[in-house]
Request: fold
Amino acid sequence: MSWGTANLSHRFICRILPLSSRYIRSPETHYSVLGVPETASLDTIKGIYRRLCKTLHPDVNPEAEERFIEVKYAYEVLTDGAARASYDQDLKQQRVSRGLW
Reply:
């Protein structure tokens, strides 16, 4: 796999997010990547992340490398208190502007 820009499918928004000088595709929300509700506790997020890593890690499943990177990035944002608060605020503003909130 090239570390340039990932192929984008119809499920993903065409925004590119840097991760360690790499570029990854970004799903609509980090919560949906991990499969947790927006009210999930830090312990719940950590548990789900560890479970996903066991099946998605490139050493175990080389075909799932892009998905693993998405999960890792979502985990990094949602476990950092300041980053999560900022992300939640941005998410709320996007929903308001789309008339979904």
User: Anything to note?
Assistant: The helical segments are 30-34, 42-56, 65-79, 81-98. Residues 1-27 have pLDDT under 50 and may be disordered.
